Amino acid sequence: xxxxxxxxxxxxxxxxxxxxxxxxxxxxxxxxxxxxxxxxxxxxxxxxxxxxxxxxxxxxxxxxxxxxxxxxxxxxxxxxxxxxxxxxxxxxxxxxxxxxxxxxxxxxxxxxxxxxxxxxxxxxxxxxxxxxxxxxxxxxxxxxxxxxxxxxxxxxxxxxxxxxxxxxxxxxxxxxxxxxxxxxxxxxxxxxxxxxxxxxxxxxxxxxxxxxxxxxxxxxxxxxxxxxxxxxxxxxxxxxxxxxxxxxxxxxxxxxxxxxxxxxxxxxxxxxxxxxxxxxxxxxxxxxxxxxxxxxxxxxxxxxxxxxxxxxxxxxxxxxxxxxxxxxxxxxxxxxxxxxxxxxx
Length: 345
Prior knowledge:
Blueprint: H1 7-24, H2 26-29, H3 58-101, H4 104-109, H5 111-125, H6 139-142, H7 144-161, H8 172-176, H9 178-186, H10 200-220, H11 232-240, E1 246-250, H12 261-265, H13 272-275, H14 291-294, E2 302-306, E3 309-313, H15 316-322, H16 338-343
Antiparallel strand pairs: 1-2, 2-3
Helix pairs in contact: 7-11, 9-10
């Protein structure tokens, strides 16, 4: 078939038509008529031509980079220096400490954790009944710490800064934290115990704070570390726990299925320390208190390690000495039976 189409002539016709449109088309639509024909024509159709019918895409592109993107980047730069940089340094300074001791800050440093532990010991002296979470119900409270971190520590302060929520919700977790009441009372300061009545939100936060404080005090007499289970700091630690030098490790052992003493010794009711091995044994709720390693009757099964070095490992001899003065769940000593040692129970 003969090619009847003369492509060159067609192209010339289109060129002439577009020349008229792009140079004189403004006479039809009006000079700078809204949108004209197009503001994004991918051809050098100059916007300085007052009779133009369409704009070259390069002019709005330059204007947007100048007036929108460039100015936004300047604001973003200010945002980075004023907002992001302080936030990054806060997290880095937190991690500088955390990288060394990991979640041991919960089990060894936190003042509220210490107060709860002392109250639990007092409860054992007073022979208060022991309350524990079992395998079937411990999961009912584990999600609360994440809700506290996400809602009270992160979301509400951010919304307050954006002007969405009232100013009184700027640091809501601090307003309900029982550690604020416990530590100030230890200094004989009773001001923080008073409920503020200068607003509905302030009153509600104060009431919640006193309720949580009372709960932590009373529950600690019968349960180990009750507030620690829902603490947002525990959740924050859980996010970074794999990135620190100090950690808990557990090796598989044939007697683990019949023992379970490590789970009884755990103040956080982490039953996974009994059933899991390897990385899963270092649970998100672990505070690195080391009691599971203390009460493991097998040599080297549970270890506290700092990098490649073992700081403490479970030992049969240590276990025998430990149970002479304390029992896994705390309280009075128990008698070690040589017959059970021989049988491996």
